[in-house]
Amino acid sequence: MSAAVRGRPVESKPRRTAVYIDGYNLYYGRLRHTAHKWLDVVSLFEGILRVQDPAATLDAVKLFSAPALAKFAAHGHESMKAQQSYHRALSILHPERFSLVYGSHTFEVDGTTLPVYVAGQPFDRSVKCKVWKLEEKKTDVNLAIAIYRDVVQGRFEQIVICSNDSDIEPVLQAVREDFPNVVLGLVTPGAPAAEDGSGFRAISKSLARHVDWARKYILDDELVAAQLPLRVATRKRPIEKPSHW
């Protein structure tokens, strides 16, 4: 869909645009198990906006994430360092447009008791075991507050959300009702469907109904074209792409 879906005329005047990225959704929806994690999100969304809304100027990209915890990460402390390096690289390359907002991870120190899944058997809450359950906190709230405050302050004329999490529906509905002139865009962080139709995750209907345009996937070619340099210069030691990324 284009930004004119709701009857808005195509404008020649630049449309100030901000992108709000649910980092958890982007990673698990599109980047995990790929070689494209060293992603320049500013460059990626510049390309997407050129296609979706040529009148847009990308003024801000806001990434909402949580610090990796070594004890739960596949590569331990190396995963923590990789995430830190990635965020530093983005901040150095795009100091005026990129910003990072951290939430947190929480878990029960004694484990969380949950019912056991047994293949072919009905649910039985009496059969339980303890598991490590890691939960990301504050991301949705931080993202929603940032969107609404930016709109209230009149900072942007277009808001683009990169997420497929229906938990952010309330803020989209509020912006649509309170500020109908603000253009809303949605980019689902998923891959295109394979030839057999597998691997495709549909756009959340609760989100799509509030936006002016929606994009169902991010292409591999777009990810490849938007990779950060292998080495990012700093005033001291350069930042290098993590070897396991």
Feature tags:
alpha/beta; Rossmann fold; 6-stranded parallel beta sheet; two-stranded antiparallel ribbon; 7 helices; disordered N terminus
- The value of Rg in angstroms is 20 Å
Going across the major beta sheet, what is the strand order? 3-2-1-8-9-10
Run of helices and strands: EHHEHEEEEEHEHEHEHEE
Shape: globular
What do we call the CATH topology of the largest domain? Rossmann fold
Low-confidence stretches: 1-5
Strand count, sense and closure of the main sheet?
Answer: 6 strands, parallel
What is the CATH architecture descriptor of the largest domain? 3-Layer(aba) Sandwich
Mean pLDDT: 89
Give the oligomeric state of the chains in this entry, treating copies of one chain as homo and distinct chains as hetero.
Answer: single chain
Q: What name goes with the CATH superfamily of the largest domain?
A: 5'-nuclease
SSE diagram, text form:
Elements: E1 15-22, H1 23-31, H2 41-52, E2 56-65, H3 77-93, E3 98-102, E4 104-106, E5 112-115, E6 128-131, E7 135-137, H4 139-152, E8 158-162, H5 169-178, E9 183-187, H6 205-208, E10 213-215, H7 220-225, E11 231-232, E12 239-240
Parallel strand pairs: 1-2, 1-8, 2-3, 8-9, 9-10
Antiparallel strand pairs: 4-7, 5-6, 11-12
Protein described:
- There is one protein chain.
- With 245 residues, the protein is an alpha/beta fold.
- It folds into 2 domains: 15-103 and 138-240, Rossmann fold, CATH 3.40.50.1010; 105-137, no CATH class.
- Helix content is 29%, strand content 22%.
- It is built from 7 helices and 12 strands.
- Strands 3-2-1-8-9-10 form a 6-stranded parallel beta sheet, with helices on both faces.
- Strand 2 (56-65), helix 3 and strand 3 form a beta-alpha-beta unit.
- Helix 4 packs parallel to helix 5.
- The two termini are 33 Å apart.
